[in-house]
Amino acid sequence: MADAVVVACCQLAPRIGELEANRALAHDAVVDAADRGARVVVLPELMNSGYVFEGPDEAAGLAEALDGPTVTDWVALASEHALVVVGGVCERDVEGGILRNTAVIVDPSGLRAVYRKAHLWDREGHVFCAGDGPPPVADTVYGRIGVVVCYDLEFPEWMRLPALAGAELVCAPVNWPRESRPAGERPQEVVRVQASASVNRMFIAVADRVGRERGVDWVGGSVIVDPAGFPLVGPAGDEETVTVLASCELAQAREKRISPHNDVFADRRPDLYGAVANTS
Amino acid sequence: MADAVVVACCQLAPRIGELEANRALAHDAVVDAADRGARVVVLPELMNSGYVFEGPDEAAGLAEALDGPTVTDWVALASEHALVVVGGVCERDVEGGILRNTAVIVDPSGLRAVYRKAHLWDREGHVFCAGDGPPPVADTVYGRIGVVVCYDLEFPEWMRLPALAGAELVCAPVNWPRESRPAGERPQEVVRVQASASVNRMFIAVADRVGRERGVDWVGGSVIVDPAGFPLVGPAGDEETVTVLASCELAQAREKRISPHNDVFADRRPDLYGAVANTS
Known about the structure:
Two copies of one chain form a homodimer. By secondary structure, chain A is of the alpha/beta class. The first copy, chain A, has a single domain, classed as Nitrilase/N-carbamoyl-D-aminoacid amidohydrolase (4-Layer Sandwich), CATH 3.60.110. Chain A has helices at residues 19-35, 56-62, 69-81, 156-164, 188-200; strands spanning 5-11, 40-42, 84-93, 98-107, 110-116, 137-140, 143-147, 169-173, 203-207, 223-225, 231-233, 242-248, 257-259, 262-263. A six-stranded mixed beta sheet of chain A has the order 5-4-3-2-1-12. Chain A has a six-stranded mixed beta sheet with strand order 6-7-8-9-10-11, covered by helices on one side. In chain A, helix 1 (19-35) packs parallel to helix 3. Chains A and B meet through strand 6, helix 4 and helix 5 of A and strand 6, helix 4 and helix 5 of B.
C-alpha cells in the first residue's frame, strides 16, 4: 500500500448565513482530518453559506469570489498540511455578476480546478446559474482527482466524463435533503454513488452536511466507495457531525479490466448510445 | 391500484445441454407464475441451453431459431394465460448463420420484440455475435415493456435508451456469475439495477439463474425494483429456485418529476454529455 492515501470526508453542520462560523468549522475539520493522516479532504456543498436560502438576494449577500476568504483559507490549509481540499462554495462569479453553486479543488500549489454545478436541484435554479463545463480532473501529487456536486451524481452520463478523463477519485460535496425510505434500505443517494463507482471502477468520496436548516433535514450518509462499488467507510448517520476516513490505493482505479475478456471502458459501445430504441 | 400488474421473475436452475428438460422447467414455472396471478413473467438468460459452454460448437448444437420450440412454447403460454413472457434463448440467427445471446418479448399476439445482447461477458465473445440494435420497447396490454440482457445492465447509457423510449418496466434475463463481496453487502449487480431504476424512474425486473454449472456459481438475486430504486421483492437467495412476484403499478413510471422543479429526463443536459473533461 505504498501509494495509498487517506481520504477524509467531513460531515459538518454549517448554519445558514453564518459565514465566519462556517469558515471556522471547515478550517477546524480540515486540520483535524490532516492530524488524523488525511491527505485528501472533502467538505460539503455550499460550505461557506448554508443551503436553504430565502431567495437570490440572501444568497447574493453570502456569496464570495474565488479569491475570497473561504477558498483562500483552503489554499493556505492545503499548503500548510500538504493536502488536496475539495469543497463547495456559494460563489459570486465576478465575470458574469451571477451566482454559482461551485466546488473547487485546491492543493499546495493553489487553486487547481473550479467546477460550477451543472444539474441544479429544486429551487437552486432561482438562485444559481448552472455551469456548462464538464467536471474537471486535476492531476495532483496524490492521484487524479475529479469533482462533481450533489444532483450531478444522478446523471450517469455526467459521471462518465471524469471517469473517461482518468479520474481515480471523484470527490462530491453534497447537501442531500432527506426523504423517507423503506426500513433497512440504504439511502438511494448512496446506492447511486456505489453504482457509479462500480461501472466506472473508480473511487468516489462524498461529504454531506447535517443539521436541520429551515425545516430541511439531510441524509448525512457521507461515504467513501471503492472501485468495486462497496463502501470503505460509511455511510455515516443522518444526525452526526463526523469525519469518515479511508485509506485508498487510488492506482487501483486505473485497472478497468473485470474479467479475462472484459474492460468496463473498452466494452462500452458509444456509437450505439445515441440510438433511439425500437418500439413496437 | 386498478392498473397494477403482477410481475414474476422465475429464478430457475437450467442444466447445460438439456434442452427438453430446460424447456419443461421454463414451461412449468410460467404456468405456476400465471396461476399465482402474474401477467408479466421474466425468465433467465439462455434459458433453453444453459450458460457455460465448452465452446462455440457446443453452443451451436444447442441453439435454436426464433421459430423453434422454446419461443413457440412461450408464445403458446402467453396466449393461453394472457401473459407477457420475457426470456433468454441461445439463438441460431438464421439470417447470418451465427449465434446470438437473445431475449424475446412475447405476448398473446405472438413474438413482439427480439433483442440481441450488445455487451458480451467474458467468453461469450467466442460464441456469440453481439447485437447492434438498441433495447426494444413493446407496447403491451400491461404497459410499455423493454428488455436488456445481463452485462448490458452495467452500461447506464444503454439503460437510458429504453427509458427514454418510454419503457415503464425493463425486464432483464441474466446469468450473474457469483463473486465474493463484503459481509452484509448486497450484490453489486443488484445495486446497479437499483441505481438504474432510480435515475430513470422506471421498474426493473431481473430473473437470474441458480445451480452450479461446470464450476460456476450464480448470484441468484432475482429482484423487482420500483422507480424509486427500492426492491419490491428480492433480491432472492443465491441457491434457491424461486419465483419472486410483485404487484407493480407501471403507470408510476410515467412520472419523471422528483421535486417541484426537477424532472429526471428534463434535467438531463445531453448537449454536454459528449464533452471531454477538463484536466489540469
